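queue> pop job 88
queue> type: inverse folding (structure -> sequence)
queue> payload:
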């Protein structure tokens, strides 16, 4: 797994673009859990990750996958004249990550700045594994329909990292903020699902890995 020294190097480069989301305080525990639990399932796979942010999970996946593509549909750019965080472009940060992947592992990682709708319209899905980390519950119903038609039928492996929370995230009708609904969704699509739960230091479960296999 990535060292904190390397992560700091990436973060320094990301900060040249704007505010950084994937800092160790926010992402280290779930990245570590993902690497321990999920990476073995992605070895030799053609992986597409949607909602890849700055690409820190892609940095790990690209090392073991046959190919990796990250799609970042949620680029956030704030009006610089207004108060708040600096301009943020996670896709440009992901492009920086791609350069580090090439340099560190002599591997090619491709990142696309696309919405899910545009991605499924403009690109023929050529993978066999799909990943979404803290992202599935943000997808809209029409985006899930596009994935259902163009992506999931071609995947033998789907990995969802899901935040455990009581509050609803009402972007779609499937209530994916509850892991049991993620399992139901993919079971209905012919996958056998296994849930690997993470427990925080205070005994509270904070996220799940849902591994779905055909």
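queue> result:
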């Amino acid at each position: 797994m990535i060292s904190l020294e390397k992560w700091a190097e990436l973060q320094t480069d990301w900060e040249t673009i704007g505010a950084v989301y994937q800092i160790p305080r926010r992402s280290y525990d779930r990245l570590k859990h993902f690497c321990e639990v999920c990476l073995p399932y992605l070895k030799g796979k053609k992986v597409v990750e949607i909602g890849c942010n700055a690409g820190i999970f892609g940095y790990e996946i690209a090392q073991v996958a046959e190919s990796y593509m990250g799609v970042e549909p949620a680029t956030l750019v704030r009006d610089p004249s207004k108060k708040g965080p600096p301009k943020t472009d996670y896709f440009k940060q992901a492009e920086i990550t791609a350069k580090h992947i090439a340099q560190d592992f002599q591997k090619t990682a491709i990142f696309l700045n696309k919405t899910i709708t545009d991605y499924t319209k403009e690109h023929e899905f050529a993978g066999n594994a799909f990943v979404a980390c803290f992202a599935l519950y943000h997808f809209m119903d029409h985006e899930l329909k596009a994935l259902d038609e163009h992506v999931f039928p071609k995947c033998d492996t789907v990995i969802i990292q899901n935040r455990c929370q009581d509050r609803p995230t009402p972007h779609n009708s499937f209530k994916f903020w509850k892991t049991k609904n993620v399992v139901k969704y993919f079971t209905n699509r012919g996958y056998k699902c296994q849930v690997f739960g993470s427990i925080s230091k205070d005994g509270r479960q904070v996220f799940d890995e849902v591994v779905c296999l055909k």
